[in-house]
Amino acid sequence: MTGSKVSALIVRPMVRADAGNGLSIFVELDDRVDARIDLFISLSG
Description:
The protein is an all-beta fold. The protein has one domain (10-41). Helices cover 0% and strands 51% of the residues. It has no helices and 3 strands. The protein has strands spanning 10-17, 23-30, 35-41. It has a 3-stranded antiparallel β-sheet, with no helix packed on it. A hairpin with a 4-residue loop joins β2 and β3. The radius of gyration is 15 Å and the shape is elongated. The model is unreliable at 32-41 (pLDDT under 50).
């Protein structure tokens, strides 16, 4: 990986379970990268 000044990305996966609402997974990337991915998985089966 030459020509790229990107350090190791720190991924902090946060899983929050709501009461019968579903599963909320928050992934935060800290390290020169300001990105927030919100994945909402509704569990209705």
